Please model this.
Amino acid sequence: MKTDASEKKVEPAIVSRLVPMDAICPDGDFMVRATIDTDTAAAYAEAMKEGAKFPPVDLFDLPSGDLVIADGWHRYKAAATVGFIELPANVHAGTREEALIFALKANQQHGLRRTNADKRRAVEVALGLTPAASSRAIADLCGVGDDLVQAVRQVPESGTCPPTRLGRDGKQYPAKRLSSASENAREDSAKDGAEESDSDREAPDAAKDRAREEWQDWSAFEDAAKAARDAIEMMESAHIAAKRREMAHAVCGKLAARCKALAARYSDDD
Model:
């Protein structure tokens, strides 16, 4: 039986290559973690200095021409700290939506273990991407429990007909009320341990302050790393200069001894 060529699924192009660091666009919209773990980034940087090889980061070449990071933020930050000019990358051709979906799935099975805050951030990104999707569909996409999705979504109770959600089967279903979602949350939390902690429910202003402090800490770390590199270069330059001075003194000493010997010789001749 012949297959219609138009029905064949076209796989997105992926090219593995070295990408200049200044060509990468670190767009925070595609970072589906709550924050960068500075300890992990610092550990990666130390390992890179010692010659450790890391898996390529995953970049998406968007129609706009931007190369955004879909997976590998800690590796990118570490490489920037060390001063890499290029970074190994798997470059995917895709849309903004495809890049976000890839990012949401990336750290479910590998990389630094996600915190509750990371899971909540992933759900928020997914809801922004597909707000009409059902809680179960969002949970499957993010690798979390239904209860967390429902807690983030917070469907309000009202006397009117509840809004609908798009299920995984493509059909529209009534959205659950908040009270029903709470009951389901108690049942599902024991299954996957996705219940968020009280620390994840911080007020927006507190979250902004915490993010600002963490960014300042990271900036201070980068400044300290740069100062250390500059100091090492100065020490190396001083070492080279000292070696040159030592050689010059040795040459001058030999010349002085030679001149003294010649002077003594001519004195004897007189």
Observations:
- The radius of gyration is 30 Å.
- The chain has three domains: 12-112, 114-201, 202-270.
